[in-house]
Task: structure prediction
Amino acid sequence: MRLIFFIFLFSQLFNFLEVFAEKIKKDFSESNKVIWEKVKENKTKSAEKIIWKSYKNDQFYFENKNKRDSITNSKKLSDETRKYGSSNKSTTSITELEPFLPLNNFLEYGNFQSSVRWKSSFDSGVSAGTGQQNPSFVFDYGISDSSLLSIYITGADDDLYNLVSGQKVNYYWQSYGLSFKKKLIDDKDFDFGLSLASSLEYWRHASGSKTAKSIYNQKDSAFGKEKFENLVGAISFPISKNLNEKFTALVVPGITFLPEKLGSKGIGKNAYGNNFYIGSGVVFDVAKDLNFLASYTIPLGPGNNYFDSDLNYSRKSIYSFGLGWDVNPKIGVEGKITNSYGASPSTGLLTIPSDNLPLYSANLTYRPDAEDTYLTPLNKRDKLISSGGITVNNALIPRANTSQIFINYDSGGNLFGSYSYSLSNIFQLELLNIGYFNDLDLSGSKNSHLYSTFLNEDNLNFRLGGKLLIFSPQKYDLYWVALRSSVGRNDDTNQGYLFAELMNTFRLNNWLAFNISPKYFYSGLDSFGGIGFSSYINLSDNLMLIPEVNTSIKNDSDLNSTLAIRYSFSPERSLDLYFSNAAGIQDIGQLLKEEEYRLGIKFNFLY
Result:
């Protein structure tokens, strides 16, 4: 209901501005001369600004400028008062270095933020795919200016990274956690802070299958899955000191509570157990809105946080380092290297099951009530291309709070659909991209291993992604540049891949725009780059021609082409008819070639 209310409110505001602008235009047409007004100097007050008629009395211009100045001044104030210690209030999205290393930062009362986080190994181990992954979702809510409530949801379901007794062993865990952090000491004179953080989690995990025995079975050779459900928890005391305006040091003593024995087939301890630990970390402001983050944690026992391929348990130090960037007040991103595989306060101290490896961590934080980046509105011609292309995407992003949907079907039976939502004027979340490739002609293909893994007969591909606008003429850059990436897997083979593209869109004139989009495909089977080229040629106000070409950059390159014609019923509704020999329009399908051309139809909606 809140979303519907705001959409209605803004639509009425835009209608009012349109009427207001028409009235100014009419008034201007009645008078072609420049009107000067003499303003008497008032020494007790600042002189009023003269608004020239050459600006067409466009108060909207000055209102938007004032809005941008207000945002800039607010952000300057935030930068001046930013401290990563106990006195901080909602000036940064960073509330923790790791789930078990909370910072003395809090959200203001009633404010909230949500984060999507992704931890993965760089390669896939014995299970193939894009890596051993542990995605998570975190929701933070400010109960008061000095109390923070957080919800953690995590899940991992890959095989163990290494073989155990020569076999692949499935390993699954899922955690639902509730965490509470309370400020205990806030000494502004010494820039010193102390808090108490605690969590309670419901931890479900399992191991084994019909073809492999559980790692918790140490008594016999019987195959089968063993499932366990436990209440686990963690307590920590983050202590922080602001050494100067740009540098904060952190020390965190804590303890995690995990079971040390699972099931009836264990001999002695066959699980992690409780762990005291001492963690340390730093946050350094490298530049405006860019922070260097690093931590190092030593588990003290009596339990463990690591086991190897022979199921020997021991303790390993946990490290992390990387960068956090507030793209704008609404959106924050983080990229780090760490050997912490867990994604909740109780499990964050654990390494990847069966090994101790450096992993990559990618986090996205969204704060809906924060100020957004201001962009000038798209003109009509640019609105017509904001729905994207067929096999080559463009860099435009629909304005904040806009939903984007497409539905696609072709003569070979390919079927795809996507739903995306613009969290910000510069960031679009691709919530669901789902579909299947059907009846592909693979004769003579040099990429048959990719077809059989991701485009096989019973494939159903799920994708999740995001698109970040970097440059735009809407904020006075020369052209549009956006970065998009997505992850997902084939439900049948349980194999996934990472897809990324850097889209560059140029508007040459009123009837022609074109794209250059380098792309990259990464999986445990193969990795390669590619590039897409496309144009948008306006034949009339509602009719557009879209030619596209994709090629992969490898010796056995697939070159495919697409020709589409788009009819726009409105800037928000359009229909594409196309002729293509690309394997499909979903990510990997854009870079692969089918032997036969297909006719297809694609419906585009913005609302």
Observations:
- The longest helix spans residues 2-29.
- Residues 380-606 form a domain with the Porin fold (CATH 2.40.160.40).
- The two ends are 16 Å apart (CA to CA).
- The longest strand covers residues 171-187.
